TrEMBL record:
The active site is at C120 (nucleophile). Binds 1 zinc ion per subunit. The zinc ion is important for the structural integrity of the protein. Its EC number is 1.8.4.12. PROSITE patterns: MSRB (PS51790). InterPro entries: Met_Sox_Rdtase_MsrB, Met_Sox_Rdtase_MsrB_dom, Mss4-like_sf. Its cofactor is Zn(2+). The gene is msrB. This is Peptide methionine sulfoxide reductase MsrB. GO terms for molecular function: peptide-methionine (R)-S-oxide reductase activity; zinc ion binding. Belongs to the MsrB Met sulfoxide reductase family. GO terms for cellular component: cytoplasm. GO terms for biological process: protein repair; response to oxidative stress. Zn(2+) binds at C48, C51, C97, C100. It comes from the Bacteria.
Length: 140
């Protein structure tokens, strides 16, 4: 894992598009079926839209029918961090970027084998890097 990226709220506002800021920094959620990665099947890697941290390989993406891009497992165990989320009257497990702590979505125990997990992510919180292209980590 690369070094953590910590920026002030003001710096995040300058670097991110408003919709990225709302999800990544304010823990928002895009509407179901509205994200650009819901139906994509292109090979490559999904990286954090905030910092460029590699998160998920396209090969573990699956159609969950929920309206958000879903994955069975992160690229590396430390690519993401998980937190107990008791907001909105629910008990869920929030998933954040392991590098910049940006909100990505939630993980649920109802996914397919081999993990049985469904990492339900917001499209706006990620960018797709096509197979064979290098990742570009954002610097402080």
């Amino acid at each position: 894992m690369v070094d953590k990226l910590t920026l002030s709220d003001e710096e995040w506002r300058k670097r991110l598009k408003p919709e990225e800021y709302e999800v990544l920094r304010k823990h928002g959620t895009e509407y179901p079926w509205s994200g650009c990665f819901v139906g994509t099947k292109e090979p490559g890697t999904y990286v954090c839209a905030g910092c460029g941290n590699p998160l998920f390989r396209a090969g573990v993406k699956f159609e969950s029918g929920t309206g958000w891009p879903s994955f069975t497992q992160p690229l590396q165990p430390d690519a993401v961090t998980e937190y107990h989320d008791r907001s909105h009257g629910m008990v869920r497990t929030e998933v954040r970027c392991g590098r910049c702590d940006g909100h990505l979505g939630h993980v649920f125990p109802d996914g397919p084998p081999p993990t049985g997990l469904r990492y339900c992510m917001n499209s706006v919180a990620m960018k797709h890097v096509p197979e064979g292209q290098p990742f570009e980590l954002v610097k402080a």
